[in-house]
Design brief:
The complex is a heterodimer.
Chain A: H1 11-14, E1 19-20, H2 31-43, H3 54-73, E2 81-84, H4 87-99, E3 107-111, H5 120-129, E4 132-136, H6 146-152, E5 157-163, H7 175-184, E6 188-192, H8 204-207, E7 211-215, E8 226-230, H9 232-237, E9 248-251, E10 256-258, H10 272-288, H11 290-309, E11 314-316, E12 328-333, H12 338-346, E13 350-351, E14 353-355, H13 360-366, E15 372-376, H14 383-401
Helix pairs in contact in A: 2-10, 3-10, 4-5, 11-14, 12-14
Chain B: H1 8-15, E1 28-34, E2 39-47, E3 53-61, H2 64-76, H3 82-86, H4 90-97, H5 106-122
Antiparallel strand pairs in B: 1-2, 2-3
The chains are: A alpha/beta, B alpha+beta.
């Protein structure tokens, strides 16, 4: 394909026949990101901050530049960007810190589609404090039921935290409405943007959300790096939960004073290469253009859903309306366990993810103990990949329907 | 179609599993879970007065490989003693299946065997 974006991704040089449908778990890495990380390790791979020599100064500058690029990408200020190790780390930080102020009678509102990363940290806090967990239900079209949200969010709600896009269903949460309901009762708002950051434009000012977290590796960046965005005044109210070097202003044997935000949340030597690599990934996404990426992905999602729907026995676990899917299409095939689907697809170099997608409560709710077979796409996914997947799926269906 | 992994025997056992049932009375019962693919199995064993397996049942959800393996192992142990069951090796289990099992599918292939073995060790 002439205008393919595959050319930017070196994995297609070593595996030209790969049909990759697991971007939702981790996006492939473009050459510019690989080069940027290699450059750090080979040319100036030293520690940041206070190194009064050239290599350290360069590392610090590159690290700061990455923070600036990411801030601009989500319409935030650089001091509102905390580097973490990923979405899970960011959500654990928030739950641990905000949980200190919770008590019995308070409630935390999540949704029925949360990834375990935005569920288990809150379960732990609820157990410790006696706060109640509530889950906004989904409707028959696999979308957030806003009427239910109005019932669940009340004057005792202290925190509303939700996955912006479901990693299983591909549905988009009505963020503005949920945040509006939360603000009405003065609850803290958190968006888990792990899935949405790569498929949608993220504007934290327009969302007016207090905190938003995402991972670098789902955004064409390296693993082990993520971002916790917080409104400056909210970050300043947040107590650090990890302690050590670099996060302090002044220390005596018995006490310490915290550094400014965001540094007070970044103790120890951070993932310097990861942050610089993520900066390069975001710059790369911007060079292609998020509008262009979204247009491609929308077209491809439409094609994928149409093709999948044409197969007998295939049930889409998600909206039947293609525009309501954001990078993710889950299916179930009657009579074939998801693991067997993945096995047969792999023989055709088609990489999908099957199982519960770290959303076990949702799978139980939907009555799918074997989970779903999930196709998740990226900027590089094309119609040929879909066609390869369809051939493989047809083979799986034939194989499993021959003996009845 | 002749498939190296999904042989007719495997697919047949998947569609028509052996010993897939709930025992009304049993000596021991165990639930086991393979989180990789969501396989969930409950096995029940009833021993007779001579300490031999009189009946065995399994229920749950799983892929073709795990379900076929469960059918095979449950049929194999009928009439065996606890010691004879424990003596069944991983290789024995894999050779009963008679298909090449990749690293990723090993947990599926051995789910029933593992569950049964730990049940016996807990007796």
């Amino acid at each position: 394909m002439k205008d393919s974006l595959k050319q930017h991704f070196p994995i297609y040089t070593s595996s030209p026949d790969l049909a990759y449908f697991d971007t939702g778990a981790s996006a492939l890495k473009p050459q510019v990101v690989v080069d940027k990380i290699r450059e750090y390790y080979s040319d100036y791979g030293v520690n940041i901050h206070r190194g009064l020599y050239e290599a350290s100064d360069r590392a610090t500058t590159e690290h700061d530049t990455a923070r600036n690029i990411i801030a601009q990408f989500i319409h935030a200020e650089p001091e509102e960007i905390v580097f973490t190790y990923g979405t899970t780390h960011g959500l654990n930080m928030l739950a641990t810190s905000l949980g200190q102020d919770l008590k019995k009678g308070d409630n935390i509102v999540l949704t029925a589609w949360e990834h375990h990363a935005n569920l288990i940290p809150w379960q732990q806090i609820a157990k410790k404090t006696g706060a109640e967990l509530r889950f906004v239900d989904i409707d028959t079209d696999y979308q957030i039921d806003i009427k239910d949200a109005k019932k669940k969010i009340d004057s005792n709600t202290k925190i509303v935290s939700f996955g912006h896009v479901s990693n299983t269903l591909g549905s988009l949460a009505p963020a503005n409405e949920l945040i509006g309901l939360a603000k009405h009762v003065h609850a803290i708002t958190i968006i888990d943007a792990a899935q949405s950051i790569v498929h949608l434009k993220t504007d934290v000012k327009k969302l007016d959300v207090d905190f938003l977290v995402f991972s670098g590796h789902k955004l064409y960046g390296p693993t082990g790096i993520g971002v916790l965005y917080g409104k400056k005044e909210k970050l300043e109210q947040l107590s650090p939960v990890s302690f050590g070097g670099d996060m302090i202003l002044d220390v005596s044997y018995n006490s310490a004073e915290w550094h400014d935000v965001p540094y007070r949340f970044e103790p120890g030597t951070p993932n310097i290469a990861g942050a610089i690599g993520l900066g390069a990934a975001v710059a790369f996404v911007q060079s292609i253009g998020l509008d262009e990426i979204i247009a491609r992905e929308d077209k491809l999602t439409n094609y994928l859903i149409n093709q999948l729907s044409s197969l007998l026995n295939v049930q889409i676990i998600g909206s039947s309306d293609p525009p309501k899917h954001h990078g993710v299409v889950s299916i179930n095939i009657a009579g074939i366990h998801t693991h067997d689907i993945a096995e047969i697809l792999n023989r055709h170099n088609v990489a999908i993810r099957v199982g519960s997608h770290c959303a076990m409560p949702l799978m139980k709710k939907l009555g799918l103990p074997g989970g779903t077979a999930r196709f998740s796409i990226g900027m590089y996914t094309d119609e040929k990949d879909v066609d390869t997947a369809m051939t493989a799926l047809k083979q799986a269906i034939d194989l499993f329907t021959q003996i009845m | 179609m002749d498939d190296i992994l999904y042989k007719d025997m495997i697919l047949d056992l998947y569609k028509h599993p052996l010993n897939r049932k709930n025992l009304e009375s049993f000596t021991t019962e165990k639930k086991s879970h393979n989180p990789t693919c969501g396989d969930l199995v409950t096995m029940q064993v009833l021993f007779d007065d001579d300490g031999k397996v009189k009946d065995i049942g399994h229920q749950g959800e799983g892929c073709a490989i795990s379900q076929a393996a469960l059918s095979l192992i449950t049929d194999k142990v009928k009439g065996l003693t606890k010691e004879e069951i424990v003596a069944i090796s991983e290789e024995d289990m894999l050779s009963m299946l008679g298909i090449p099992i990749s690293h990723a599918r090993m947990k599926c292939a051995l789910l029933g065997w593992n569950t049964l073995k730990s049940m016996m060790n807990e007796l």
